[in-house]
From TrEMBL:
The lineage of its organism: Bacteria, Bacillati, Actinomycetota, Actinomycetes, Pseudonocardiales. One of its GO terms (molecular function) is transposase activity. Signal peptide: none annotated. It comes from the Bacteria. This is Mutator family transposase. GO terms for biological process: DNA transposition. Keywords: DNA recombination, DNA-binding, Transposable element, Transposition. Belongs to the transposase mutator family. The keyword Acyltransferase does not apply. It comes from Allosaccharopolyspora coralli. The keyword DNA-binding applies. Required for the transposition of the insertion element.
Length: 420
């Protein structure tokens, strides 16, 4: 039987404590991990010490203290309990009292998992693992059995959190808001592909703020978009300088109805993405390099020159791409009127594509969802994983100060740098 590690003296720093424990474990032949490993014993020791401290506070006297005898309630031995932790199952002894009034908090009655396990489940779910894959993961990594139903109950806990997140107050003004669609498969009698719309704002502080998720049926019009944008406005968004969107019927009119000074910009990112749909993947990198001078040109005239160079290179191989850009040119060029720093924000594909990639990864593993709420829950978990605070935020770009000042000049009186 493996020896129990002796407690170390108080007052040593963390590094010396770790070194002493590792040396002691090595001397005694104790593994670092495993059912009888050092981490398991330490976790057991910490939990049992905390539970004993809770019992002392509950009874009002220390263990074995004479003053506690015949006080009406006293310690009454322990009961064995196995709890699932981040290092695997740990068997602990939970103290009992004679009148069964002890209500532990560190490991609650009937609690079989520490809270860190729930976070692991949510993290794995956000990465796209199914309930069966998560259950298998716990069996392989932790040697613990967690049922699919338990995993579903853990993820269901975020539904209330998702509702709070969907109704949280937003900033008063956003320099830019992007509206995009993610397509998910939902079984409603039969499996159909349906859009879930995501609105991503750039804050005055240069953060990416995911404002919300809205499920559609593919036939959305002005009434739908007016309701969505009014909801965003009612959550505190009084002004948006630029709204970037693409091909969504009724959205431009709804934007100018809700924010009358907002500029509606055709999404350059979608134009680039649509370009790649016509081309073989092996040419994407070269094509992206040739296109960048077009949408980063300092003026419309310069953009036209760069596009002529692009066309001369690719027209023979991909004439449909050239026609796509020529057809979209009048909707593409308005953003060239903005300062180069503003255009850099509008064309910063990484910040948007990283969100979309996380969403696509999560939904691809599921195949399809039984309900609309299940799909929204999956996408919310992916959103949650982007920002541990649960606000759905992350830095937009390192060069935000120049862009902020450009917005403050271009949209004078609407953007205040001091708000950063």
């Amino acid at each position: 039987m493996t020896e129990t590690l002796e407690p170390v003296t108080d007052g040593v720093d963390q590094q010396r404590l770790a070194e002493q424990l590792l040396a002691q474990a090595k001397e005694q032949g104790v593994d670092l991990v495993g059912p009888d490993g050092l981490l398991n014993q330490l976790t057991k020791n910490v939990l049992e010490t905390a539970l004993d401290a809770e019992m002392t506070e509950h009874l009002g006297y220390d263990k074995h203290e004479v003053s506690g005898r015949n006080g009406g309630n006293s310690r009454n031995g322990t009961r064995a309990k196995t709890v699932l932790t981040e290092i695997g199952p740990v068997e602990i002894e939970v103290p009992r009292d004679t009148d069964s009034s002890f209500d532990p908090q560190i490991v609650k009655k009937r609690q079989r998992r520490l809270t860190g396990i729930d976070e692991i489940v949510l993290s794995l779910s956000a990465k796209g693992l199914t309930t069966g894959e998560i259950a298998a993961h716990f069996g392989d990594v932790y040697g613990a059995s967690v049922s699919k139903d338990t995993i579903s109950r853990i993820t269901d806990k975020v539904v209330a959190e998702m509702t709070d997140w969907s109704n949280r107050p937003l900033d008063r003004v956003y320099p830019v808001v992007f509206i995009d669609a993610i397509h998910v498969k939902i079984r409603d009698g039969q499996v159909t592909s349906r859009p879930v719309y995501v609105a991503i704002g750039v804050t005055v502080g240069g953060e990416r703020d995911i404002l919300g998720l809205w499920a559609g049926d593919g036939g959305e019009g002005a009434k739908f978009w007016l309701a969505v944008l009014t909801e965003i406005k009612n959550r505190g968004v009084a002004d948006v300088c630029i709204v970037v969107c693409d091909g969504l019927k009724g959205l431009p009119d709804a934007i100018t109805t809700v924010w009358d000074r907002a500029i509606v910009q055709t999404c350059v990112i979608h134009l680039i993405r649509n370009t790649f749909r016509y081309a073989s993947r092996k040419y994407w990198d070269a094509m992206a390099r040739d296109l960048k001078p077009v949408y980063t040109a300092p003026s419309e005239a310069a953009a036209a020159e760069r596009f002529a160079e692009f066309a001369s290179t690719w027209v023979q191989q991909y004439p449909a791409i050239i026609r796509l850009w020529e057809t979209s040119w009048s909707e593409f060029i308005p953003f060239l009127d903005y300062d180069v720093e503003i255009r850099r924000v509008i064309c910063s594909t990484n910040a948007i594509e990283s969100v979309n990639a996380r969403y696509r990864r999560a939904i691809r593993a599921r195949g399809h969802f039984p309900t609309e709420q299940a799909a929204l829950k999956c996408l919310y978990l992916a959103t949650r994983s982007l920002d541990p605070t649960g606000r759905g935020r992350a830095r937009w770009a390192a060069r935000w100060k120049p862009a902020l000042n450009a917005f403050a000049i271009t949209f004078e009186g609407r953007i205040t740098p001091s708000g950063n």
